[in-house]
TrEMBL record, chain A:
This is Sarcosine oxidase subunit delta family protein. The lineage of its organism: Bacteria, Pseudomonadati, Pseudomonadota, Alphaproteobacteria, Acetobacterales. Pfam families: SoxD.
From TrEMBL, chain B:
PANTHER family: AMINOMETHYLTRANSFERASE, AMINOMETHYLTRANSFERASE, MITOCHONDRIAL. The keyword rRNA-binding does not apply. Belongs to the GcvT family. Residues 171-413 form the FAD/NAD(P)-binding domain. The keyword Oxidoreductase applies. This is 2Fe-2S iron-sulfur cluster-binding protein. Residues 560-824 form the GCVT N-terminal domain. Keywords: Oxidoreductase. Residues 461-545 form the SoxA A3 domain. Residues 844-926 form the Aminomethyltransferase C-terminal domain. InterPro entries: 2Fe-2S-bd_N (IPR042204), FAD/NAD-bd_sf (IPR036188), FAD/NAD-binding_dom (IPR023753), GcvT/YgfZ/DmdA (IPR028896), GcvT/YgfZ_C (IPR029043), GcvT_C (IPR013977), GCVT_N (IPR006222), SoxA_A3 (IPR041117).
Automatic annotation (TrEMBL), chain C:
The keyword Cytoplasm applies. Residues 36-385 form the FAD dependent oxidoreductase domain. Its main location: cytoplasm. It comes from the Bacteria. NCBIfam families: soxB. Keywords: Cytoplasm, Nucleotide-binding, Oxidoreductase. PANTHER family: FAD-DEPENDENT OXIDOREDUCTASE DOMAIN-CONTAINING PROTEIN 1, SARCOSINE DEHYDROGENASE-RELATED. Pfam families: DAO (PF01266). The lineage of its organism: Bacteria, Pseudomonadati, Pseudomonadota, Alphaproteobacteria, Acetobacterales. This is Sarcosine oxidase subunit beta family protein. It is found in: Cytoplasm. The keyword Secreted does not apply.
Length: 88, 934, 420
C-alpha cells in the first residue's frame, strides 16, 4: 500500500485515495474544432511509460481534492506530489 | 525417544493427543512433531507424486514432509499443517494424509514402481489419446485423484479472525540472537518496536541452550516493545508496509490476527536455512537436517535416533552430532564430503569415526532408515558405490551448509548478490529502509561448495531435491537436457521449489543442480523469484471480519425498519437493501407487485426513494458549471423549476440521469441514480477542480441527509395537502420544487413523477422520514417497492440507466434528444456524439414491444427480423406483466426501431421457439401525459 | 527436430534413462541477420502467431524475440480460464474461434496442453446480474456459442462448494454455464507452440530485448529492429508484447490507447479434488478453479494505478479472499501458498486490438487486459493471417485500432457493468 503525501493533508495510506489517471492531459478548449483523430487521441491515447509518470490522485476519503504526483512505474516510488496548476 | 531430563518442556503437564487414531502423550511445550518423535513415530506422511514414505526433515517452518490434517471439530478441520509448527494441546487430533488405505501401507506407492515412466514433465508427452477429449475425460480424473495432498475442509469455519493496523519506528523480524539485539538497541534509542517471530517461543537458535533466553526479559519489560511470538511476517509491501499473521488459537474462537505494520525501519533477522544433501534415498524417514535433530534433542529432549550417521558438508553438522552424542546417541560415523574436515580431530577425540571425502551411495530401509552405504568420492564428487561399505543406523544427519533466509528481503525488491566466499546469495542493494542482521546478512560460514555438491549428485538415482514434490537431481538434469535453461523454466517443468515449502528446503540445491547440468555457475543461472506469502497463510486471516453483513457494508433507507416489520422482500441494489415489494400474509410476490401498481394508478402509492444520490451544487457559477457538464440547458432553468437531466461520459455514452432542480440563482439540488451517486460526484468534482478551476462552485453530497418519500397517484395531492404548510400544492405544477414545512419539518417538496401519475417527492431530514412515512400510510397510501416502481416507469416508457442502457447507448438512441440543449456549444461528451459511429442510421433505438401472445418476453432476449436469423437486431431490455393494462409489456433497443413502429420482430426464448412482438412506441400509459399534469 | 511425444516414446526412453530426449525447441544464441517476419514477444500469443505463420502461410524466415524466457509474462502468470461466452458477436466470434482451436490443440501441437473443458459457471448475485447474464445466454445461443442458465440449486450441483444460502450478503440467484469452457496448462501452451514452431524452422531468440525499431527514411516502413543481440532486418514486424506494448510502439512513434496495470493471482496449498469446475463472479470479483495438482487457482483484481512492477498490493489479495470466503465459506481454513503479479495492458473498451497500424509493415496484437490466455490460439491464428496477408483477418477486423476514432468500440465491460 503506497504512502501518498496529499499536498493539503500530508502523508496518508493509499486506501484513502483514488487514482485518477494520467496528468496534464488538456481537454481541447473547443472540442468541436478538433478532428476525430485528435479527439480520439485526447480521449484514449496514454503515454503509459515505464519510468517517471505524471498522474492524478484524489484524496477521496480525506479532503476530496485532486492533485498530481510523479511516480516511477517500475519502483512505484513517488518522488513528488503537487497541487493542480503547480510545477512538480 | 524422550530423554529423562532437559529440554524446554513442562513435564508436569502431560497432554494427550492422537495421530491416525492412536493415542499418545506429550508435554506442554512440545510441538506435534517433537511429541510424535518422542513416541517413536517417524513415518508421518507420503510424498506428492510417488507416495514415498516421509518423516520429519526439519524442526521449523520450512518442513516439507510432515504435513498432517488437524481436526479440532466441525468446521475446524484443516489440511497440510506442518507438524513442526503445531503446539501440542490437550486432545489434539491429527491424521496423516495422501495415503490409501493407511500410512504404513499405501497402495498409491505403486507409483514408485512406474517412476521410470514418470520423469519431469511426463504428462506433457503422453495422455494425448485415444480419441477426442481423452485428457479431460480419461486421464485428467486419474491424475487429479492421485494429486493433491490433504482434504479440503467440508464445513464453514466457525472461528474468527481479526485485523489490526500498527505503526512503529522499528520492526524486527526474527527473534533470535540478532533480532533480540536489534530490538533492544532500537528500544533503548526510544523507538516503538515490534518484534515478531514465527516460533511459539522466541529465541531462535538461542533456544538450543537451556535457561532463559538472554535479552527477552528486558524486552518483555519494555512498554515500547511489542513482542509477537507465533507471528509470521509474510508480505513485504512498498514503503515498509509489512503484513504479519499472528496465530492466537484462543478458546473464544479468535484464531488468527493480521497485523499491517507501517514502519520507519525494518531489521530482518530471519537467520539461515540448513540445506539438505543429495544422495540416493535421502528422503527416507530418519534422514533429517542435522540442526533439526539437534533442536529436537536440546529443545524438546527427544532423541530422533539412537545410532546416527552424519553426512557433512559444513562444520555445523559436527556441533549437532556432538550434541546428540552428549545426550546419549551413538554417532556411528561422520562422512564428510570435504577432503580435510576442520573438526575431524575434535570428532575423533570424542571417539567418532570420521571419513573424509566420503559420501552416501544409498540408504537402506523401508518406512525408516536402517543404514547407509558409505562410499569414497570419485574425482567428479560422486560416491563410488563399488567401494561402498554399509553402516547400520536409524538416523542420518545432513549438514549441507546454510542458505541465508532472504525471502522477505527479496519481496522488498532487494537484489541478491552471489558471494563466492560465503557460497551463498547475500543481501545486495535495496531501496526500502531495511537492514539485515545475523545469519541472513552473512550466512553461517562456508562449507563444501554447493556447486560441487550438486555436480556430484547429477547421476544419482532418487536423490531428492524437492522431497514433497518428488523432484530428483535427474529430473532437473532432464529438464536442462530438453532445453529448459532459464531457472524459471526448470522450476516450472520439474515443479522443484513449488511445494508447500516454496523451495525453502531444496531451492538452493535445485538451482545448483540446474547450474551443474547446464555447465554454468550458480550466479550465471540466477535464482527464481521469492513470492509472498513467506509461509502458507489461512484465507480467513486475510479475509478477517469482512464476512456476511460486513463483507460489504449494507446501507438501508429510512423506512427500512417499517418495511422489515411489515414483511417487505428486499433486494440488494449496490450496497443498498431496497424493499422490492410488501407482500401481505399469504400473498405471492407477483400478486403484491400487481396490487401495488394498481394502487398507484388508482389512488396513491408510497416509495422510499431515499437511496437516490443527491448533490447540492452551490456558488455564483453553479449554473455555468452544470451547463458545461450536463447535456441540458441550465441557464434557462428558473428557480423553483426542475428538469430531467442527463450526464454523459466524455465518450458520448450515457453515464447517469436524474432531476436537476434550481432552488435559487446560485443553488441546485441534483439527483442521481442509486448506484451512480458516488461516481457522478467524483466526475463532477474532477471537472470542477481540474477542468474549470476558475468557476466558483461547491459540490456536497446530501444523499444521506435527505430522506425521500415518493407519493405517487391521483390521490397524492389530497393525501399530502393536510400535512403541508407554506406551500399551495395546487399551485405547484409538474417539474417544480418548493421549500415548505411538512408535518412541521422543513422539507423540499418536488412535484416530479417516475410513474406517470401526479406525484410528489418529499425530501425531509432522513431521521424524520419515518414520521411522514407512517402518516401517509395512515392517510391511505399503499407502500410500493422497486418491482412496482420498475413496472410503473416502463408503462410510461421511462428508462433506467443500467437497464435500458449498458454503457454503449447515447441519449439519441433512447429518444432523449429533446433533453439536450440545442444551442449549447459544449458539454461533456458532445464532441463524441459527432463521430461517425454515433450518427449511423442503423443504431439501436428504444422501442416499446407488445407481445402478440399472452406472455411477456424474457429480459435479455435477442430480437430477430425473421425466423432463423443468425444476427440479432436488438434485445429486450425490460419486460413486465402490466396490471394497469392487463397485458404484458416490454421495452427494447432495436436497430432503426423508431422507424419500425407497427412491424413485428421475434424475441428469442430460452424455453422454446422465438415469440412475435409488435414494435410500438415506448409509452404505454397515458401517452398524452394528462395524469402527470393533473 | 524434437522427439515425437507419445506413450510409446516415453516408454522407450524410460528403458534408456531418458537419454534420448532432445531440446524441445531450438533457442539459437545469435539471430540471423534478416528475417521475413519478426514477432516481438515470446508469450503464448506471439509463439502461436509464429507457429501459424509457419504452418499455414509459409512466409519464409520467421523469428520470435523474447526479452526474457518464453511464456514468462502473462502466459505463465494467469489463472488459465478459457471461455467464449462474450456478449457482442464480434467478441464471441473471436473467443469461440479460440475455443475451437483449443479443442484440438494438444493433437495439433503433439504436446499435452491439458485443455480441460470442465465448464465455466458465471454467478449472478442480484436482479441486474440475472438480466445481464441471461442477455449473454440469449446472445450466445444465437451466435452458436453454448451457454445455459442454471437456477441456484443447479449451480450448487455443478459447483458443490458454493454457498447458495439466501442469507449471505450477495446471495447466488443463478448462473450462466458454458460447458465447453474450462482451463488449460499455461506453461505447456507456450512450450508446445515454441516446440511446434521451432520444428517448422522458426528461430526463438530468448534474452533478446528490442531497443529500437528501424524504419525506412522515405516511406516510414519498418526495416528492422535493434536488439540486445544486434540489428535484425525484417520485412514485417508483429508486436505481441502485452504490458510492454506502449513502450515498443513508442519506438515507432505511436501512442497507444493502453494502460498497464498490475494484476495478481494466487494459489492455495494442494488438496484432493474438491472443485470440479471454473466459477466466476464479476460482481464480487471471485474467480476460482482447481489445478490438476490440487491447488485452488484464484484470480484477483488489478491495482488502481498503472505500474510495471509485477508486484501488487496486499489489499487486493485481501479483497479477493474475502470474496472467496464469502461464497465458498468452507475454504476459509485453506491456505494461500503463493501469490504473484503480472502486467496487463488494458484498452478503453476492454477489448483487444489486433491489426495493422499507420506504420507500413508494423502490426500489433495487444490490449487483452485480464483475459488474454483464453484467446491464445485464436489470437495467434488471426494475427498470423493478418500479417501474412497485410490485411485484417475477418474475425480480427472489428478489433482494429481505428475503432477508437470512429467510436465503434466493443465495450464488453460496460455491457456487464452494474448500474442502477
Amino acid at each position: 500500500m503506497l504512502l501518498i503525501a496529499c499536498p493539503w493533508c500530508g502523508p496518508r495510506p493509499e486506501m484513502e485515495f483514488r487514482h485518477a489517471g494520467e496528468a496534464h492531459l488538456a481537454r481541447p478548449a473547443d472540442p468541436a474544432a478538433v478532428s476525430d483523430a485528435a479527439w480520439a487521441a485526447y480521449l484514449y491515447e496514454r503515454s503509459n511509460p515505464r519510468g517517471e509518470h505524471a498522474e492524478r490522485w484524489r484524496h477521496l476519503h480525506g479532503c476530496g481534492r485532486f492533485f498530481n504526483a510523479r511516480r516511477h512505474t517500475l519502483t512505484d516510488r513517488i518522488s513528488a506530489t503537487y497541487k493542480p496548476g503547480e510545477a512538480p | 525417544m524422550r530423554l529423562p531430563s532437559g529440554g524446554r518442556i513442562d513435564r508436569s503437564k502431560p497432554l494427550r493427543f492422537t495421530f491416525d487414531g492412536r493415542a499418545f502423550t506429550g508435554f506442554a511445550g512440545d510441538t506435534l512433531a517433537s511429541a510424535l518423535l518422542a513416541n517413536g513415530v517417524h513415518l508421518l506422511g507420503r510424498s506428492f507424486k510417488y507416495h514415498r514414505p516421509r518423516g520429519l526433515l526439519s524442526a521449523g517452518a520450512e518442513e516439507p514432509n510432515a504435513l498432517v490434517e488437524i481436526d479440532r471439530g466441525p468446521g475446524r478441520r484443516e489440511p497440510n499443517t506442518r507438524a513442526t509448527m503445531v503446539p501440542l494441546v490437550e486432545g489434539l487430533t491429527a491424521r496423516s494424509q495422501n495415503r490409501f488405505p493407511s500410512l504404513r501401507f499405501d497402495l498409491a506407492a505403486l507409483a514408485s514402481l512406474a517412476a521410470p515412466l514418470l520423469p519431469a514433465g511426463f504428462y506433457y508427452k503422453t495422455f494425448l489419446g485415444p480419441g477426442r477429449e481423452a485428457w479431460h475425460r480419461r486421464w485428467e480424473p486419474l491424475i487429479r485423484r492421485m494429486a493433491g495432498l490433504g482434504r479440503a475442509p467440508e464445513a464453514p469455519d466457525p472461528d474468527r479472525y481479526a485485523h489490526r493496523f500498527a505503526h512503529c519506528e522499528t520492526l524486527v523480524i526474527g527473534a533470535g540472537r540478532a533480532g533480540i539485539a536489534a530490538a533492544l538497541e532500537a528500544a533503548e534509542a526510544g523507538d516503538r518496536v515490534i518484534l515478531c517471530d514465527e516460533q511459539m517461543e522466541p529465541g531462535g537458535r538461542l533456544l538450543l541452550s537451556p535457561g532463559e533466553v538472554p535479552g527477552l526479559a528486558a524486552l518483555r519489560g519494555n512498554l515500547r516493545v511489542t513482542l509477537l511470538p507465533r507471528t509470521t511476517a509474510f508480505h513485504y509491501g512498498l514503503q515498509n508496509f509489512v503484513s504479519l499473521a499472528e496465530i492466537l488459537d484462543r478458546p473464544d474462537g479468535l484464531r488468527e490476527r493480521l497485523w499491517q505494520v507501517r514502519t520507519a525501519r525494518v531489521v530482518l533477522a530471519t537467520g539461515a536455512l540448513e540445506r539438505p544433501l543429495p544422495f540416493r534415498g535421502n528422503d527416507r524417514p530418519g534422514v533429517m537436517l542435522a540442526d533439526a535433530a539437534r533442536a529436537y534433542a536440546a529443545r524438546w529432549a527427544v532423541l530422533p535416533g539412537r545410532q546416527a550417521v552424519l553426512l557433512a558438508a559444513h562444520d555445523s553438522g559436527y556441533e549437532a552430532a556432538f550434541a546428540l552424542q552428549d545426550r546419549g546417541a551413538r554417532i556411528a560415523a561422520i562422512l564428510d564430503l570435504r577432503a580435510a574436515p576442520p573438526l575431524a580431530a575434535a570428532a575423533r577425540a570424542r571417539g567418532i569415526e570420521v571419513r573424509a571425502a566420503h559420501g552416501i551411495a544409498a540408504t537402506r530401509g523401508g518406512l525408516r532408515v536402517t543404514g547407509v552405504l558409505a562410499a569414497p568420492l570419485r574425482p567428479d564428487g560422486s560416491p563410488d558405490a563399488a567401494r561402498a561399505t554399509p553402516i547400520p543406523c536409524d538416523l542420518v544427519l545432513m549438514a549441507g551448509g546454510w542458505t541465508p533466509n532472504l525471502a522477505l528481503f527479496s519481496q522488498a525488491r532487494g537484489r541478491l548478490r552471489w558471494d563466492e566466499a560465503a557460497d551463498a546469495f547475500l543481501p545486495g542493494e535495496v531501496a526500502e529502509a531495511l537492514t539485515c542482521a545475523g545469519a541472513c546478512a552473512a550466512g553461517r560460514g562456508p562449507g563444501h561448495p554447493i556447486a560441487a555438491i550438486a555436480a556430484g549428485a547429477l547421476t544419482a538415482r532418487r536423490a531428492f531435491v524437492d522431497p514433497q514434490n518428488d523432484v530428483t537431481t535427474r529430473d532437473i538434469a532432464l529438464a536442462v537436457q530438453e532445453g529448459f535453461r532459464s531457472i524459471e523454466h526448470v522450476k516450472r517443468y520439474t515443479t522443484t521449489g513449488m511445494a508447500t515449502d516454496q523451495g525453502k528446503v531444496g531451492g538452493m540445491l535445485g538451482l545448483a543442480t540446474a547450474a551443474a547440468a547446464s555447465g554454468r555457475t550458480v550466479p550465471e543461472t540466477g535464482h527464481t523469484t521469492f513470492r509472498p506469502p513467506y509461509t502458507p497463510l489461512s484465507f480467513g486471516t486475510l479475509a478477517g471480519r469482512h464476512r456476511g453483513p460486513l463483507f460489504d457494508p449494507i446501507r438501508t433507507a429510512p423506512s427500512h425498519g417499517w418495511a422489515e416489520a411489515h414483511g417487505a422482500v428486499f433486494e440488494p441494489v449496490g450496497q443498498w437493501q431496497r424493499a422490492r415489494a410488501y407482500p401481505r400474509a399469504g400473498e405471492a410476490l407477483h400478486a403484491a407487485v400487481a396490487r401495488e401498481c394498481l394502487a398507484v394508478r388508482q389512488k396513491a402509492g408510497l416509495l422510499d426513494a431515499s437511496t437516490l444520490g443527491k448533490i447540492e451544487i452551490v456558488g455564483p457559477d453553479a449554473a455555468e458549471f452544470l451547463e458545461r457538464c450536463y447535456v441540458n440547458a441550465v441557464h434557462s432553468l428558473r428557480p423553483g423549476r426542475c428538469r430531467y437531466a442527463l450526464l454523459l461520459r466524455e465518450d458520448g455514452f450515457l453515464f447517469d440521469d436524474g432531476v436537476l432542480a434550481r432552488l435559487a440563482e446560485d443553488r441546485f439540488h441534483l439527483t442521481t441514480t442509486t448506484g451512480g451517486a458516488a461516481r457522478v460526484l467524483h466526475l463532477l468534482e474532477d471537472y470542477a477542480q481540474t477542468e474549470f478551476p476558475a468557476l466558483r462552485v461547491f459540490l456536497t453530497s446530501t444523499t444521506e441527509h435527505w430522506g425521500v418519500a415518493a407519493l405517487q397517484g391521483p390521490a397524492a395531492r389530497e393525501m399530502l395537502a393536510p400535512l403541508v404548510r407554506g406551500c399551495e400544492l395546487a399551485a405547484l405544477p409538474h417539474m417544480t420544487v418548493a421549500e415548505a414545512e411538512v408535518m412541521g419539518i422543513p422539507a423540499r417538496l418536488f412535484r416530479v413523477s417516475f410513474t406517470g401519475e401526479l406525484g410528489y417527492e418529499i425530501n425531509l431530514p432522513a431521521d424524520r422520514l419515518p414520521e411522514l412515512w407512517e402518516a401517509l400510510i395512515a392517510a391511505g397510501a399503499t407502500p410500493y417497492g422497486t418491482d412496482a416502481m420498475h413496472v410503473l416507469r416502463a408503462e410510461k416508457g421511462y428508462v433506467i440507466v443500467g437497464q435500458e442502457t449498458d454503457g454503449t447507448v447515447t441519449p439519441l438512441d433512447l429518444g432523449l434528444g429533446w433533453v439536450i440543449g440545442k444551442a449549447k456549444r459544449d458539454f461533456i461528451g458532445k464532441r463524441s456524439l459527432a463521430r461517425a459511429e454515433m450518427q449511423r442510421p442503423d443504431r439501436r433505438q428504444l422501442v416499446g414491444l407488445a407481445p402478440l401472445e399472452g406472455r411477456a418476453p424474457e429480459e435479455g432476449a435477442q430480437l430477430l427480423a425473421r425466423p432463423g436469423a443468425r444476427e440479432a437486431e436488438g434485445h429486450v431490455t425490460s419486460a413486465y406483466a402490466s396490471a394497469a393494462l392487463g397485458r404484458p409489456i416490454a421495452l427494447g433497443l432495436l436497430a432503426r426501431g423508431r422507424a419500425r413502429h407497427g412491424e413485428t420482430v421475434l424475441a428469442t426464448r430460452l424455453d422454446g421457439p422465438p415469440q412475435p412482438l409488435q414494435i410500438v412506441p415506448p409509452v404505454f400509459w397515458d401517452p398524452e401525459g394528462k395524469r402527470l399534469h393533473g | 527436430m524434437p522427439n515425437r511425444f507419445s506413450f510409446l516414446t516415453l516408454a522407450r526412453e524410460a528403458l534408456r534413462s531418458h537419454a534420448g530426449w532432445r531440446p524441445q525447441w531450438r533457442s539459437p544464441e545469435r539471430p540471423q541477420p534478416a528475417y521475413d517476419i519478426v514477432i516481438l514477444g515470446g508469450g503464448g500469443h506471439g509463439l502461436a502467431t509464429a507457429y501459424y505463420l509457419a504452418k499455414e502461410h509459409r512466409v519464409g524466415r520467421i523469428a520470435v524475440l523474447e526479452k526474457g524466457w518464453i511464456g514468462g509474462g502473462n502466459t505463465g502468470r494467469n489463472t488459465t480460464i478459457i471461455r467464449s461466452n462474450y456478449l457482442f458477436p464480434e467478441s464471441a466470434a473471436l473467443y469461440d474461434h479460440a475455443v475451437r482451436l483449443w479443442e484440438g490443440l494438444s493433437a495439433e501441437l503433439n504436446y499435452n496442453v491439458m485443455f480441460s473443458p470442465r465448464g465455466v459457471l458465471m454467478l449472478a448475485h442480484g436482479e441486474h446480474d440475472v438480466q445481464s447474464l441471461k442477455r449473454h445466454v440469449h446472445a450466445n445461443r444465437l451466435a452458436g456459442v453454448d451457454n445455459e442458465w442454471l437456477a441456484p440449486a443447479a449451480c450448487k450441483a455443478f459447483c458443490p462448494p458454493l454457498d447458495i444460502s439466501p442469507a449471505i450478503r450477495y446471495p447466488v440467484l443463478g448462473g450462466a454455464l458454458q460447458r465447453r469452457g474450462g482451463v488449460a496448462r499455461h506453461d505447456a501452451v507456450a512450450w508446445g507452440y515454441a516446440r511446434a514452431a521451432s520444428a517448422l524452422g522458426v528461430d526463438i531468440l530468448e534474452n533478446c530485448e528490442v531497443t529500437g525499431i528501424a524504419r525506412d527514411p522515405r516511406g516510414g516502413a519498418v526495416t528492422g529492429v535493434e536488439t540486445s543481440k544486434g540489428h535484425i532486418r525484417c520485412g514485417k514486424l508483429g508486436v505481441v508484447a502485452a504490458g510492454s506494448t506502449s513502450l515498443v510502439m513508442a519506438m515507432a512513434g505511436l501512442r497507444m490507447p493502453l494502460e498497464s496495470f498490475p494484476l495478481q493471482a494466487l494459489v492455495s496449498e494442494p488438496v484432493k479434488p474438491v472443485f470440479p469446475c471454473v466459477a466466476m463472479s464479476n460482481t464480487i470479483h471471485a474467480y476460482v478453479s482447481q489445478s490438476d495438482k490440487g491447488e485452488l487457482v484464484i484470480g484477483a483484481g488489478t491495482d488502481q494505478y498503472t505500474s510495471y512492477s509485477q508486484a501488487g498490493n496486499v489489499q487486493i489479495l485481501e479483497h479477493t479472499l474475502e470474496a472467496i470466503c464469502e461464497i465458498f465459506p468452507i475454504f476459509r481454513r485453506m491456505r494461500m501458498l503463493r501469490a504473484w503479479g503480472g502486467i496487463v495492458d488494458v484498452t478503453p473498451d476492454r477489448s483487444p486490438i489486433i491489426g495493422t497500424t499507420s506504420v507500413p509493415g508494423l502490426y500489433v496484437n495487444c490490449g487483452w487486459g485480464t483475459g488474454g490466455f483464453k484467446a491464445t490460439p485464436g489470437s495467434g491464428h488471426v494475427f498470423a493471417a493478418t500479417i501474412a496477408r497485410s490485411e485484417p483477418h475477418p474475425i480480427a477486423a472489428p478489433f482494429s485500432l481505428d475503432r477508437f476514432v470512429t467510436g465503434r468500440v466493443i465495450d464488453e465491460a460496460a455491457a456487464a457493468a452494474v448500474m442502477h
